[in-house]
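Why run this: before we spend reagent on co-expression, it is cheaper to look at a predicted model of the complex and decide which construct boundaries make sense. The entries below are exactly what would go into the expression plan.
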Amino acid sequence: MEKKGGLLEWLDKRLAVNALWRIMMSEYYLPKNINFLWSFGVLTMLVFAILVISGIFLLMYYKPDAKLAFDSVNKTIMMDVAFGWVFRHTHAVAASIMFLVLYIHMARGLYYGSYKAPREVVWITGFLLFVLMSATAFTGYLLPWGQMSYWAAQTITTLFEKIPFIGPDLVIWIRGNYIVADATLTRFFALHVVFLPLLLIFVTAVHLYAVRIVGSNNEDGIPMTKEEKKVKGIPFWPVFMAKEYFVMSVFLLFFFYLVFFNYNFAMDPINFQPADYLQTPMHIYPEWYFLAYYEVLRGFFFSQNLGLIAFVASMFIILFMPWLDRSPIVSGKHRPLYKIAFWIFIFDFIFLTILGKLPPTGLYAWLGLAGSIVFFLFFAALPIISKIEKSQVEKAGR
Amino acid sequence: MKELKILAVIVVLVLIGYWGIEPLAHSIMHKHIEEAIKKYNLPDFKFSDLDPIPSGLQGNPQAGKEAVKTFCISCHSVKKEGINAPMPPQAAAQSFGVVPPDLSNIGGILDEKYLFNFLKNPQKATENPKFAMPALGLSDQQAIDIVAYLKSIAKKNMSGKEVVEEGCVRCHSIKYQKIQALSPPDTMKKYLGKVPPDLSVIYKAKGEEYLHAFINKPQAILPGTGMPRVGLDKEAQEKAIAYLEEIADPHKEQRTKVGIIVLAYLLVMVGLTYAWKRKIWKNLH
Amino acid sequence: MADDKMSRRDFLLYAMGGWAAIGAAGVLYAMYKTWEPLPEVKAQATTKFDLSKVKPGQLKVVSWRGKPVFVLHKTPDMKKCEDRTVAGEYTVVLGICTHLGCIPNWEADKKIWHCPCHGGEYDACGRNIFGPPPRPLDIPPFKLEGKTIIIGEEGPEYKKLMEKA
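The model came back. Tokens follow.
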């Protein structure tokens, strides 16, 4: 890259590509004490690229029209287009796996305290990316126009009805009809293929830029000075990426195993029935990555309004991590109390995810309530844990 | 090694989640179906709930032919024998809700015991009280004669597609195969309460186990459904479902082939990238 | 020693890059295939037409692959041309002017095709007789099965015509 002369030099004079390369890649130093969990950021980029590429090819045959959508997906793309089925399976599995990778990426940040100063902007942009990705997944899920697509959109848009004063009108405005209909499909399509991806790309750029300014966190949460980095750190390129290639290959092996041999989890059977606005399927549920929030919504089964508030809070509360957790110790590795809370939270999240798909009756309803309360207790406990740890640090300091 | 430990934790957590949202949720939500399958031992090709054919009863195709002429052809055609339908299909659908089937090949797909019971009491055999064909008051001998006759004229070794066209297409369309249901949708809606679903990708929507049980005994799986028990014998039903799978998932073979190539490719990639990583990281301080 | 290390590193790098290129080629191939015409389009590659439906002196336009094919049943008073006649008495030509791709009109009184775009003219055999067209109207590949013509398939009669021309 540092070669003199030729195209690179010509470009460098005009675009400063060498400087850009150094800042973003070859002189972006990562600490050595990080494990492969730090690879998941790059994995989200990889999955995003897969989604964009497979999406472009689906776009060439998909028809955003309530009368044509189902057949354009299930007949034209799945049966007629050569390798169309590869692109659809890839897109569906990638959408699902994106959230697995995102959740692991976020959990790593939670565990090692990557949201703490000075990385708040990284955390906020990351949260924004999560919200945008959720919106992209939700709008995209309507496009095949199957029964599950339709009723997921119908129920989730109905949630807006509960907003005081403007709710009922807002729902009609969002749908462009009294029910989810052709207008809804077309506008969701526009959001899914143009607007949201553009926003995602923009926020991703800010996210990556921010992490290069403040530097990557590490297992011990101890910041390195610039000099230390050059001596002890590893450059993103080529050293960190060398490991990344290996992680990516293993990931792709797993990913394409799912695409070719175990794609059913991402393609709900109910969605192979065309949307019917007069008949709700016996069981409806969101895709797995929304189940935990969905369960919080249902968890407060005695009060719909409380459930709704809890639902919105459960999605957004994680944004406030940097301010809820004021402990001077960064990494969970050195915080026994936080560690316990973290693992309770993780298991609670999985617990809620599982409950979210089960019928909300009898014991399941009460378990859902308990799980939802534990979910919020984690965040409520953070200021207390911070306080205890602060006094411990002060004591040790003296 | 630390990295492997972390990987193990992730794998375990993912597997717990997967088990919860797939097998566990499935077993709870589809409990009634699994219970019905167990209760009636579905698919039950012995049709255990129906009366057995009285022992010693022998069917005579010749006598059956005469009985068909007496009892059946006021509604049904037998094109193979040169007997045409008494009224055009549209008019028949208007009065009965569905187009009465042509009897040429029907004997080739239906179980003998079922057909015998059906002729004696259609509503009971189909488990559908609204079933359009009335009981004809046949004697056991007449019924078994008709069975013998229909079996004797029917085409042997029908393909899966032929079975489906014979057994399902009177009510169901298969849009992606350009097959239109014989009965018009509006009369069926009046007769059955709703237009029967299209079968193009029904295999993906319902799965093999469900289809086997449902076709065999619809009321056990979906109480109150307008779908009558059709009474396909084992061979016909297996062929029909194999056909439904083939049309719903036409690229199955290609998928397996391409999948193996892709995985083999990536396996080599894993090896190469691992060697590269070791090479680069070996020289680190 | 140092050189040795470098070469092994280079080899690995090339192997990795080469292998990745193979994968990229595979993906590109799948992408390439998705742009091929769909089966329903390919099914329209041939058009069957019954020549006996065209009465003497009459012109019929058949659609083949979305393009017009002129089928003219010739009468004795029209221009003769052994090497451009199908089944003894028909002119079968692609109705696209060889100049710039407009569709010529049949003028029954003059027994010629006249192109509205730049005034090119063709006789009843489809030969260019006036104006800018550089060559006669093209004869589409065809196959004869009795009086039925299958446009889009190369039969022996078509090959014979091509040899003569």
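Chain A has 16 helices and two strands. Chain A has a mean pLDDT of 92. Bring this page to Monday's planning discussion.
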